[in-house]
Amino acid sequence: QVQLVESGGGLVQAGGSLRLSCAASGRTFSSNAMAWFRQAPGKERDFVSAITWNGGNTYYGESVKGRFTISRDNARNTVYLQMNGLKPEDTAVYYCAADSRVYYSGRVYSERVMNYWGKGTLVTVSS
Questions:
Q1: How far apart are CA 35 and CA 24, in angstroms?
Q2: Model confidence over 110-121: pLDDT tens digits?
Q3: What residues of the chain score a pLDDT lower than 70?
Q4: Cα 62 from Cα 28, distance rounded (Å)
Q5: Which helix (H) or strand (E) holds 109?
Q6: In this predicted structure, what is the pLDDT of residue 105?
Q7: Which phi and psi angles does 20 have, rounded to 5°?
Q8: Phi/psi class of residue 47: alpha, beta or left (left: φ > 0; alpha: ψ in -120 to 50)?
Q9: Are 75 and 9 in contact (CB under 8 A)?
């Protein structure tokens, strides 16, 4: 059974940091881009960040550029999201997803190409 399991969420004060992890099991995703999305209460799910299969390219949503950093460790089948300078508006459930395309190195941002999703981890930023 293929699973993506997010961890690392929690409650943090504004200006603080969290590091999210997404551990994959059941198959390797070393040939797939991986992405993070988030959904705030009452809002649609939005793109946060993505990283290509070999880590060569990274992409960020405008609201997190300069504050968040995505990385991956293919040996551990894990993707990370380092979140610094957190703001109350970053409060959301954060989801990890895997791109269905293999060895794709172009821009990654659409949830429509993601074929595996985690169940999410809640990040709450207090003001």
A1: 13
A2: 999 999 999 999
A3: none
A4: 29
A5: none
A6: 86
A7: -90, 145
A8: beta
A9: no
